């Protein structure tokens, strides 16, 4: 039996985008407004400083300011998972200790990037973070960006510890996701990573998901999750298809994050541009993004109404 309350980690987690001011600096007010925006959307929590949050492009001090702002604003209302991995173990530990000081609910980390690391090195990197705070730890496996493909052997070694409560599976294979779930068992959380496969991931064992595009349509992912939980799989498939049409369009812009941030601005949530080398969208993209925003709003309207009818 695990000592952790896993129920607060089951569901939809928005991988929060960065929030900068006009000069491109971290802006606490904007971080808070963005975090607050998700409170009423029905999501379970936020994943802070991950890929979508551009943690890896920010300084340690900036990352701390983001976490502090999120915790102050919504730390009592949502479950907050903080991605603490930096390239050095030293900085990652500093961020892990800081997350605990701020009252975050869990930490999470990718392997260090750039160097081709052995499994022993990645294990040591993660273990130092696990040991330096008393927070539960969630492995972040995203081989397509880190170049490190987590093996079952290393996974089972790391996951055997009570403090390691889950894994965020951002690789594309639903089979891999299922294999991790099968080995770790019921009392171990698996988060679906690819938003395009939320339905597939959940059916194959994921307890919820962490995703970036949830940020512009959190309501749709919450309804999708409810369809799955209540076994309405045809409705779930229909909605996932709509979502995927949106995601495919979002992926056609100079950067996914730039497109999503612009859509947020159309919903009165200013977050600035993504930080270089991630490209912003340009003025010529604005009209089509505005059309896409209307499409998202229409779907949110339609599906939240349908869900209300089902619940009544
Ligand atoms: C590679 C990547 O960035 N994957 C995203 C997805 O949310 C992704 O943006 C989405 O599926 C669109 O392809 C997440 O798995 C990453 C994530 O949650 C994060 O921001 O840490």
TrEMBL record:
InterPro entries: Aldolase_TIM, DapA-like. The active site is at 140 (proton donor/acceptor), 168 (schiff-base intermediate with substrate). The keyword NADP does not apply. SUPFAM superfamilies: Aldolase. The keyword Lyase applies. Pyruvate binds at residue 210. Keywords: Lyase. GO terms for molecular function: N-acetylneuraminate lyase activity. It comes from the Bacteria. GO terms for cellular component: cytosol. Coiled coil: none annotated. Belongs to the DapA family. This is N-acetylneuraminate lyase.
């Amino acid at each position: 039996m695990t000592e952790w309350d896993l129920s607060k980690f089951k569901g939809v987690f928005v991988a929060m985008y960065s929030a900068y001011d006009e000069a491109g600096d971290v802006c606490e007010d904007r971080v808070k407004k963005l975090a607050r925006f998700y409170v009423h959307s029905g999501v379970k929590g936020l994943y802070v400083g991950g890929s979508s949050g551009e943690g890896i492009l920010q300084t340690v001090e900036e990352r701390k300011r983001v976490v502090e702002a999120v915790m102050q604003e919504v730390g009592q209302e949502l479950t907050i998972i903080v991605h603490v991995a930096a390239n050095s173990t030293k900085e990652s530990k500093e961020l892990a200790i800081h997350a605990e000081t701020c009252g975050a609910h869990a930490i999470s980390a990718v392997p260090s990037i750039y160097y081709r690391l052995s499994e022993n090195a990645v294990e040591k990197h993660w273990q130092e973070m696990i040991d330096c705070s008393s927070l539960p730890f969630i492995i972040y496996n995203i081989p397509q960006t880190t170049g490190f493909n987590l093996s079952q052997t290393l996974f089972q070694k790391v996951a055997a510890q009570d403090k390691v409560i889950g894994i965020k599976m951002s690789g594309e294979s639903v089979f891999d996701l299922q294999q991790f779930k099968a080995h770790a068992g019921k009392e171990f959380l698996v988060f679906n990573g690819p938003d395009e496969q939320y339905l597939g991931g959940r059916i194959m064992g994921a307890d919820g998901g962490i995703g970036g595009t949830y940020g512009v349509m959190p309501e749709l992912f919450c309804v999708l999750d409810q369809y799955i939980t209540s076994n309405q799989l045809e409705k779930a498939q229909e909605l996932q298809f709509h979502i995927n049409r949106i995601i495919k369009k979002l992926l056609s812009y100079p950067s996914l994050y730039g497109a999503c941030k612009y859509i947020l601005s159309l919903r009165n949530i200013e977050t600035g541009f993504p930080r270089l080398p991630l490209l912003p969208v340009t003025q010529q993209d604005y009209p089509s993004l505005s059309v896409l925003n209307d499409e998202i709003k229409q779907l949110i309207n339609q599906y939240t109404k349908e869900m209300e009818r089902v619940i009544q």
